[in-house]
Amino acid sequence: MRLVGNRPAPTARILLTPDRRILLALFAIAFGLRVLYAATVGLAGDIAPDPRTYDFRTAESIYSSFAWISEPFTPKAPGYILALAALMRVFGTGVWVALLFNAFLGAAATFFMYRIGERKLGQGVGLLAAIWLGLYLHHIHSAAVISRDVLVVFLWLWILHVSTQFLHNFRSAMWLGLLYTVLIHVEPMFVLVFPVFIIGFALFTRRDRARGIQSAVLFAATVCVLCIPWMARNYVVYREPIPISLEATRYTGSLGRMFDTSNVDTRDVSREAGQTPGAPGFAHNSVEFWRVVRLSDAPGNPHLGIRPEPAWSTRHNLINLISFGVLLPFLIAGCAIGRQRRNLSALALMGAMTTWWVVRGFVGADERSRLPVEPIVILLAIYGPCGWWRGSEHAGAIPLRLVPTPPDSRPHRAIAQGRTAPSRHPRSLTAPVPVVFPA
């Protein structure tokens, strides 16, 4: 007997919605480009003479046993190294295990770009931003280097994606706390962003302010509680309550007992940890943070801790100018439109970008330190012209709500949601015309 009534759609059609097809295509393109770049450029010696970086060698030395629980193995944050060690335990110690892991993280970051843009900044913003990030050569290049940068960008975008929908329930606060704990165990410098994160959540709450403050406190408490196990491990190893790692003590306080790094390439650790000798000023670090091109050699200043930098190649300057420099004027426009229309998501992204810029301005900055904010720059730069083109109705501004109307009246319900308005002629109620309300 054949059922002729309403039948459920096939499972394949339910799973592969148009939205998910776009995400799958974005992931496939970004993943393929990163693997291709790593195979043709990364392993060819153009990036580094030896792809086996300090992180890779450390993970390779600890993956076969659990002695690292009670013994020191690195002064760096343990997150990325332990993730590599876990993968090596399952898939082996080949370099491609780490490179495929980086390629997967870099491609998966396009998912969060798409979601943040489409849901919070306007239709089309997420798609264009995800395409830009997937083709962005700086991030493709970083995925071919076995370091924590790609994981940092992935976790940071995940946190921003969750935080734009934050303070609706306490479960989201706890989930965000878990993600942030993982992030600071990968890049300890985000400890400096942590207080600003809490204050921002407590203040920029569209709903109940008291509930927002409670959720922010719950978020902070979750991070503090989840940091206890690794701090306890560090106390057993170093006989001192060291949060996260020795690297993090630059931001969390002085350390009386230093770590024995006699068997570690200190130059490699310093470069991977983002440490620079001396203390360059905020203005110098800001210029290096936002630098688009370097046409000539930059002399160093040992007294100020400034290292000499060679001029970038013509290829490097052109690629950076096309992929990043062209975004900066539109970034200013996007920030102005977001502030004018009071788009909370755009304001939150601006706050995150500014906070990381200030932190790097005082700690030290270079082109690599810009990686976490480049996705934000892309989102706001695309949001600017899209918001100007579509007007306040489609730019993410809060729609103007009119007087309550009957819920069963579709045209009037559309008016209440700020989408359409019917004509005065009674026969044209089924053909509403668009109307734009001021922000």
Percent of residues in beta strands: under 5%
Average pLDDT over all residues:
77
Strand order of the largest sheet: 1-2
- Count of alpha and pi helical runs: 20
Order of helices and strands: HHHHHHHHHHHHHHHHHHHHEE
Observed structural traits:
disordered N terminus; disordered C terminus; 2 strands
What is the strand and helix layout of this fold?
Blueprint (H helix, E strand, L loop, with lengths): L10 H5 L2 H25 L11 H9 L16 H13 L3 H27 L3 H11 L1 H7 L5 H15 L6 H15 L9 H10 L5 H18 L1 H11 L10 H4 L13 H7 L9 H8 L24 H12 L1 H15 L2 H20 L10 H17 L19 H7 L3 E2 L11 E2 L5
Antiparallel strand pairs: 1-2
Give a concise summary.
This protein has 20 helices and 2 strands. It has 439 residues and is mainly α. Among the domains are: 166-253; 401-421 and 434-439, no CATH class.
Descriptive overview:
The chain has 439 residues and is mainly α. Among the domains are: 166-253; 401-421 and 434-439, no CATH class. 58% of the residues lie in helices and 1% in strands. The chain has 20 helices and 2 strands. A two-stranded antiparallel ribbon has the order 1-2. α3 packs across α4 (79-91). The longest helix is centred in the first third of the chain and has 27 residues, at 95-121. It is globular, with a radius of gyration of 25 Å. It starts with 10 loop residues before the first helix and ends in a 5-residue tail after the last strand. 34% of the residues are buried.
